[in-house]
Amino acid sequence: MLTPKFKLSQDENHVYINVHAPYTNIGETEIDVDGENFLFVSSPYFLRLRLPGRIVENDSAKGSYICDSGDFNLTFDKVNPGEHFENLDMITSLLAPREIPEINPNLVEMLEESGIAGEEEGAACSKSDKDTESDDDTTNYAYGFGNKVCVELGDVASEFPHIFELKEPDRVAIADRNDLRIKHENRKFSTDHYLADFFDEELLEPYLNCVVFWNKEDFDAESIEFTDEEISILKDLPNKSYLLSKTEYTQVMLGLVDILYAFCYDKRTTQNDASVESSWTINKLSATFSWFCVFKETKEVLIAAYRRALSYPIFRNFELCRNIHDDMISLFRKGKKFVIKCIIEIYNMFNSCNDARYILNQLYVKDYLIFLQKCRQEELDELCNNIANIDIEKKDLGFELDELEEAAKLVEREEADVLQNELACQLASIALVPGLKKPPYIDVTALINSSSTDSSSYTSSTSDSSSDSLDSDDDPS
C-alpha cells in the first residue's frame, strides 16, 4: 500500500485534512475518525494518522473529492473548541508510529510531546554510556545518527575517500576520532592559502558582504510552508522514536550545528546559488560526515567547524567564518520548520550528486529529518542561544593565526621598505648621470640688454645656445 501526500491545517474549531490520492476508486474509499486517530483507506493508498488532539466525525463533518486533482478535502470538528493542535505541519510525526520497545521505566522517561526518550534526572547511565568504558564493546566503535550503527562498514569507507576521511570507523574508537581529525587538519592547513585570502580583500569582499537569503528583507519566516516535493520526502520517512541518553542527545544536537555550519558556508560562498560542488563542501566541512565525530560542548563543535572552513574550501578567511557563524544563528531563529527545510535541501543534494553521498542520508540525514520533527521549538531556541553566546577567537583554533598574520605583516612592511629604498637609489642614480642639464630657458634680462644688437646676430646666438643645451638623452630621435 502507498502512503498518499497529505496536508493538515486548522482554525479555532476545525481541522482540515487534504489527502492527494489520484487514480483511486471513490466507491471503495473508507474514512474513519476515532479521537486522535484518523484512517484513510482507498486502494492503493493507506494513511493512518495520530493527531496531537481529538477530533470528531459528526453531522457537521464535510468531505469532497476533486476529480481533476485527485484530492480529498475533509473537515472535522475539534472535540475541544479553541484547542490549538501543535505541529500539524510535521508530516512524519503524524504518521502512526511503530510500537516502542519495552524499556526500564526507572531508567528512561518517554517524552510524548517530542517522541524522544531521555534519561530521567538522577538516573543511572544508559547502556551506551556504560559501554564506552569497555574497549572491546562494539558500541565503542559505533557511528551514524546517535552512534546507533554498530555493524561493520568494511571497505565502504575506503572505497569513497572523497566522502570519508576516516576510512574505518568501526575500528577507531569514538573517543579517538577527534584527536585524529585535529592532527589531519594540522597537516592540511596551508599558511600560504590562508595568507593569500587574508591579504586579498578584493577577492573576499563579495562573500564577506553577501546576505544569505533568509536574512533578506523580503524573507517572511511566518509564511514558511513545505513544498509538495518536501512533503513527499517527509511522508515516506518512518515515524519512529529515539531512545537517547543525555550524552547522546547532546551529541545529536551538536552534530546538527556542525552540519548547518557547513550548509551556511556553502550558501554564503555561492551567494545563495548552490553549485555542483555544494554537496562536496557540506560533506567536507562537516566533521560529523567526514570523520564520524561527536562533540560534547558547543564551543568544541564551533572550533571544529572554523578549523575545517580554514583548511579545505576555496575561501579561507577568519572573518568569513565569523559571518557564517552569524548566518547559522539567524537560521535557527527562523524556526524549526525552516531548519527542516534546510536539512531536506542537504538530503536532495546528497541524493542527486554522482559521488554516492546518498550513504550519508542513510547514516545521518534521514534520522535528523525524523528527529527534528519531534523536537520542541524550545530545544532549538536553547541550542541557538548557546551558539550565540560563544565567541570563537583566532587563538582557539590551534593554527597560530595571530602570529602568522603578524609575521606576514612584518614581512610586508620590510618588503615595502626595501622597495622604497630601491626606488630612492634609482632616482639618485638618474640625478648623477654625467652631462645631464636642466631644460633650456630664455633669460629675459639678457634679451632686454641685447635689444640694440643686430637681429641676425641675436638669432645666431640663441640658436647656438639651444643647440648646446640639448643632451643626447633628450634627443627624441
Structure description:
The chain is elongated, with a radius of gyration of 35 Å. With 477 residues, it is α+β, with helices and mostly antiparallel strands. Helix 8 (246-269) packs parallel to helix 11 (298-309). Strands 1, 2, 3, 4, 5 and 6 form a six-stranded antiparallel β-sheet that branches. It has helices spanning 91-94, 127-131, 156-159, 174-188, 191-199, 201-208, 228-235, 246-269, 278-285, 287-291, 298-309, 318-332, 336-352, 358-374, 377-388, 401-431, 444-449, 455-469, and strands at 5-10, 14-20, 30-42, 45-56, 62-66, 71-78, 108-111, 116-119, 242-243. A hairpin with a 2-residue loop joins strand 3 and strand 4 (45-56).
Question: What Rg, in angstroms, do the CA atoms define?
Answer: 35 Å
Instruction: Give the overall shape, derived from the CA principal axes.
Output: elongated
Main sheet summary: 6 strands, antiparallel
Beta content: 5-15%
Secondary structure: helix percent: 40-55%
- Average pLDDT over all residues: 83
Order of H and E elements: EEEEEEHEEHHHHHHEHHHHHHHHHHH
Structural class: alpha+beta
Low-pLDDT segments, ≥5 res: 98-114, 118-136, 451-477
Number of helical regions? 18
Region (Disordered): 119-138, 450-477
Biased composition (Low complexity): 450-469
Family: Belongs to the SHQ1 family.
Keywords: Coiled coil
